[in-house]
Acetyl-coenzyme A carboxylase carboxyl transferase subunit alpha
Amino acid sequence: MSLADLEKTLSELERTSQETGVDLSSEIINVKHKIEQTRAQTHTQVSRWERVQLARLPGRPTSLDYVERIFTDFVELHGDRAFGDDQALIGGPAKLGDRSVMLIMQQRGKDTKDNIRRNFAMAHPEGYRKAMRLMDLADKFKLPVIALIDTQGAYPGIAAEERGQAWAIAESIQRMSLLKVPAISVVLSEGGSGGALAIGVGNRVLMMENAWYSVISPESCAAILWRDSKEAAKAAEALKLTAPDLLELGIVEEVVPEPKGGAHLDPNYAAENLRAALERQLDDLSKLGPDELVEQRAARFRSLGVFVEI
């Protein structure tokens, strides 16, 4: 049984014991022991599918959890000035130490009610138009952009398509590519498809150790290739979507370490590592001028991938 399955089992046992009053202490202790044994394994023994499950665990830090621990003076700005205020994608100015920055973030909910309000971090077109509005402000006031990615993808519903979902994502990608200020994108947990790439055009792209980043989720990939979403584990292996994979392939510049077992076990440790990585990358990017930043960003993405002439 994977670590994610064990964590889920423990949560269910504790909830059942609390709600029914039945003594399940021996079962709880047994599961906790198995969890500790699993955590003791080295991270190289964690499969790609297990990392995907870790990225989805309840209690894993969200964007706002990292904001609370890393940034100060955050002021959320609302609305896209065209349709409405998308709560799946939020942002505004903040301070990282003594440095003023512009935050753009995808935000998951903490519970079912909050997830519905946040639309499970799947933004509508107005969310991406809000992101572009924040990018305009960042350029105007010369604020480095920090984008925190955490979504399985943009919302695919009819209403989103009617309001120009694909167009909004394309415009957001274009706008971010032209930023005259440093831009850093961080995949916190899940980074799915164009919904993630819309705010992923950074001069540097970082990933938390147990995050995944891919053009498609393992379940959707399995449904297409094998006509069975239960083959998700096989798809995850084929996609090579984990942080170590993408670092090796040159898709990301840095993997941010998490505590053994996942960021949910020690959010402060994960946040401190992310703070150090952001400060280090911003210090490096601050040496580049506006035009150099645009050129470096363009060159970075043009260099991704390989082709062979036959």
